Each structure stands twice: as structure tokens, then as C-alpha cells.
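May I ask you to comment on the folded chain given beneath this request?
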Amino acid sequence: MKHADDAALDQLDDLLNQIREQVGLKERKRGVFFLHFHEDPAGLFADVRTDADWERVPANTPTEKRRLVAKIKAALRPPR
């Protein structure tokens, strides 16, 4: 599975804009935050850093994208 190229990231432009709106996130380069994107024959996926591990999250359908944004928001919430 290769990292998403510019053409693949173009498909995720709306999603990337939602991610960029999250307070506390810094985009190191296009599409790379504490997550990054991959493309493979099954579609586009985000690898999200959770604790000391990576979790692969699909990012193809509107529902998958909403779930990804929710996961990002949850990861950015301060611990209680």
C-alpha cells in the first residue's frame, strides 16, 4: 500500500479541509498530520496514530469520512 499521491489527496479535499479545521492539528505536509493517507486497490485509507500504534481507517464513503473526523476529534480531546 503506497502513500496517497496528490491526485488521491485531491479526492479527499473536503475531508482534508475538515481535518484542518480541528484546533491543535498541524499539517506537516499536505495530508500528513498525526495521520496520513494511503491508497490501494480497495480505496483510500487513513493511518491514524492512536497511543503508540497505528489504526487503519477507511476514507472512501461519506459515512467513513464522518467516522474518521469523529475519531480525530476524539483523539484531540483533552483527557479527563
